[in-house]
Amino acid sequence: MSRLSGGAGGAVVVALLACVVAQWGCQESLTGAPAALTGTTDIVQTAASAGNFNTLSSALATANMVNTLKGKGPFTVFAPTDAAFAKLPEGKLDGLMKDPAQLRNVLNNHIVPGKITADQVTKMTSAKTELGQTLPISTEGGGVMIGGANVIKPDIMASNGVIHGIDQVLLPR
C-alpha cells in the first residue's frame, strides 16, 4: 500500500483527483482558498464562482462575450454586482437582455484593456474602455470611483486579468 493512501497524504491524493475530475482550480482544495481568489481561473469562471456576479455572467452569455473574456487578455473588468444590476430602472435590464448588440456596448463599457490592479487604479484619473469611452476615476473620501460607480470589491484576480466589483452599471453616454 502506498504511503499516500491514508491520513493527510490520502486527503491530498483525493483532493488532486477531485480537481482533475471537476476541472476546477486545484488551489481551492489544496490551500482552502477559493480558486477564484488565487487567479487560477479566467475572468468568466472567476466571476461565475464569486457568487455576486450572476447577472453579469448571464449578460456575458447573452451578448456572446464569454469566449472573448476567456481569451488571453489581459483584461480589467469593472464588474457590476447583482445588486448594481438591480438598481437599473424597471425594464432596463430586460430590454438589454433582448438586444444583444446594445448589451454588448454596455458590457464593453466595463472592460479596460490590460491588467490594472487597485493600487494602479488609485493613481489614474481616467480609463478608456473597450467601447472607446473615457471613464473618470476619483479617489476622494478614501474610496475609489470609476464613472460614478464605487469600487466595492477590488482585486479579484483571474488568470487573464482582474475584476473590480462596482455598485452601479456604467451605461454608455
Structure, explained:
The chain is an alpha+beta fold and 173 residues long. The chain folds into two domains: 1-33, no CATH class; 38-166, FAS1 domain (Roll). It contains ten helices and seven strands. It has helices at 7-22, 27-31, 35-38, 43-50, 54-62, 66-69, 82-86, 92-97, 100-108, 118-121; strands at 75-80, 111-113, 126-128, 134-138, 145-146, 149-158, 161-166. A seven-stranded mixed β-sheet has the order 2-1-7-6-5-4-3. The longest helix is centred in the N-terminal third of the chain and has 16 residues, at 7-22. Residues 1-37 have low confidence and may be disordered.
Which helices and strands appear, and what pairs or packs with what?
Elements: H1 7-22, H2 27-31, H3 35-38, H4 43-50, H5 54-62, H6 66-69, E1 75-80, H7 82-86, H8 92-97, H9 100-108, E2 111-113, H10 118-121, E3 126-128, E4 134-138, E5 145-146, E6 149-158, E7 161-166
Parallel strand pairs: 1-7
Antiparallel strand pairs: 1-2, 3-4, 4-5, 5-6, 6-7
